[in-house]
Write a structure and sequence with these properties.
Elements (H helix, E strand, L loop, with lengths): L3 H4 L15 E2 L9 E3 L4 E7 L4 E6 L2 E6 L5 E6 L5 E10 L2 E18 L1 H4 L8 H6 L3 E8 L16 E4 L1 H4 L4 H14 L3 E7 L11 H4 L6 H30 L24 H7 L9 E5 L8 H18 L7 E4 L16 H15 L3 E4 L16 H14 L11 E8 L2 E7 L6 E2 L8 E4 L6 E2 L1 E6 L2 E5 L8 E4 L10 E2 L9 E2 L12
Parallel strand pairs: 2-8, 8-11, 8-12, 9-11, 12-13, 13-14
Antiparallel strand pairs: 1-3, 3-6, 4-5, 4-7, 7-8, 9-10, 15-16, 16-21, 17-23, 18-19, 18-22, 20-21, 22-24
Helix pairs in contact: 5-11, 9-10
């Protein structure tokens, strides 16, 4: 990508705390860290080229030699949960010891501002923070950074969960980690690497987008922004020079406004390079992802970008089956329309749903019931973290719990009625406070939707109809930017995902 190095300046801080100049560790490998249990666990670092490096932990001993670039790596054999342990790393006569290392479960939490929203901003923040002392919950918060090439390290350090550090940690990540800690009774490590106001393409490797007919336009648009900025800057500098040469920096009261460069955090792959790549291949159980607000006007494209990102992250960690939890966007902006039509937030949720349906080991965490129509940053983060943990307990740990809310599976039309079938119902479909099902609309050949009457007729099936629609063609549920009036849940009281039975064009289909 041309001229990026001149425009985007990134400083990556090496925070391993290693005193010996010939031995350096990445920030993610340090005191108080959690090593993923029951899986091979890579450890790596840098030393002088050709140096012999020894690593020992919990009765294991490994030896390797650093390469021409100084990088070395070993892989610990799978271990049971427990600790604290020490890791001793030796290079020649030098030795470095990592203290208070636990073996347990590690999850990476990423996304934009709703994942980045800190515990100190919760409604009961004073009490929440005061109670955040958990010896076996370990936190690793990555500082925000952007880079135009993949980096080797980042700015962060592992800490034992305490009020001082928890207050500025992801609230969603904290609640997820605390729930897993209580349920699994093993040490839990949560990596918080998020940046507010960022699009999904910023978290996606450049190579995963390059040449893809759906995603190449993201790269092309950024290149145009850079070119436009450079042209505007050249014009500004020329005009400024001309004014100075005329003998006055401000003849006749003329003013010049220096153009601003494109926002760094929007750069495709910029956040992946600085905030994800340096963490690979640190062993993880899986990912939690809460992002999408910055992509709502390209909602249809989001399906393809998120798919590419998930597959690229899994490839970077060398495991195509790593669990990936996707938090579906909550309601925002508008009160319910009567009846609903076509809206960008609804289309973004549909893209999230499609990704969860087409990729294995991807879960959908529905949050339409915990949004705020006047605040894009709803404060109800505890249920989001708890729902992520519940999905993880099912997906990653085989617990017999319902992983998500009801998901539309199929439909059939019989006369003037449409029968809808759902997955993930638990012991059966239900509604909030046992009220009649709300939020369904139906249309005939004219494609004009009307509010529908819905009825649960068995554990997995709902029938929908409307007297003025004798020949139904399609049904939609919760199809709005803010579907706050919907009330379909399963036996675990988890809300159903919005959906539609049609595939008619949406307002973001052509946005690239």
């Amino acid at each position: 990508m041309r001229a990026l190095a001149a425009i985007f300046l990134v400083v990556v801080v090496c925070s391993s705390g290693v005193a010996a100049q010939s031995l350096r560790l990445p920030a993610v490998i340090g005191d108080h860290m959690v090593v993923q249990r029951d899986k091979p666990a890579p450890l790596w670092g840098w030393a002088e080229a050709g140096a012999t490096v020894t690593v020992s932990m919990a009765g294991q001993s490994h030896e390797t030699e650093s390469g021409d670039d100084g990088r070395w790596a070993v892989t610990l054999e799978p271990m049971d949960a427990g600790g604290p342990h020490t890791i001793v790393i030796g290079v020649g006569t030098e030795q470095h010891t990592l203290e208070d290392v636990m073996v347990g479960e590690v999850w990476l939490c990423s996304g934009q501002s709703n994942m980045d929203m800190r515990l100190r901003k919760m409604e009961d923040a004073e009490n929440e923070v005061a109670e955040a002392t958990h010896e076996n919950l370990r936190l690793f918060r990555v500082e925000r950074a952007v880079a135009d090439t993949p980096q080797d390290d980042l700015d962060a350090s592992w800490v034992r969960c305490n009020p001082s550090d928890a207050r500025d940690f992801s609230a969603v990540g904290y609640y997820m980690g605390l729930e897993l800690l209580n349920e699994l009774d093993v040490p839990v490590g949560i990596i918080h690497t998020a940046y507010g106001g960022t699009p999904v393409e910023a978290w996606t490797p450049h190579g995963a987008m390059e040449g893809d007919p759906e995603l190449q336009p993201l790269l092309d648009r950024h290149e145009r922004r850079i070119a436009d900025y450079e042209a505007e800057l050249a014009e500004y500098e020329a005009a400024q020079s001309a004014m100075t040469n005329n003998g006055s920096p401000n003849p006749g009261g003329a003013t010049l406004k220096k153009p601003s460069p494109p926002a760094e955090r929007y750069m495709p792959a910029g956040l992946y390079n600085a905030m994800i790549h340096p963490l690979q291949p640190f062993a993880l159980r899986g990912f939690a992802w809460y992002q999408g607000e910055s992509n709502v006007w390209r909602a249809r494209q989001y399906e393809f970008t998120l798919t590419a990102m998930i597959e690229a992250w899994r490839a970077g960690w060398g495991d195509e089956a790593l669990p990936f939890g996707v938090v579906q966007l909550p309601g925002y902006v508008s009160p319910p329309r009567v009846p609903p039509g076509t809206f960008s937030w609804a289309e973004l949720r549909e893209s999230q749903l499609r990704v969860a349906q087409k990729l294995d080991h991807v879960g959908l965490i529905v949050t339409t019931d915990v949004g705020n129509p006047t605040d894009i940053h709803p404060l109800a983060k505890r249920p989001v973290g708890q729902r992520l943990a519940q999905w993880a307990l099912n997906e990653a740990y085989g617990r017999n719990v319902v992983p998500t809310g009801p998901i539309y599976q199929s439909h059939r039309i019989e006369g003037d009625r449409v029968y809808l079938t759902f997955d993930h119902v638990g012991d059966g479909l239900a509604t909030v406070e046992s009220a009649p099902p709300r939020g369904f609309v139906i249309c005939g050949p004219d494609q004009k939707f009307r509010w529908a009457v819905a009825e649960i007729i068995d554990d997995r099936t709902i029938v929908v109809s409307e007297a003025k629609v004798p020949e139904p063609q399609a049904v939609r549920y919760g199809w709005d930017d803010n579907p706050a009036w919907t009330n379909l849940v399963n036996s675990a009281n988890l809300p159903a995902s919005p959906f539609r039975t049609d595939d008619w064009p949406g307002i973001t289909d052509d946005a690239r």
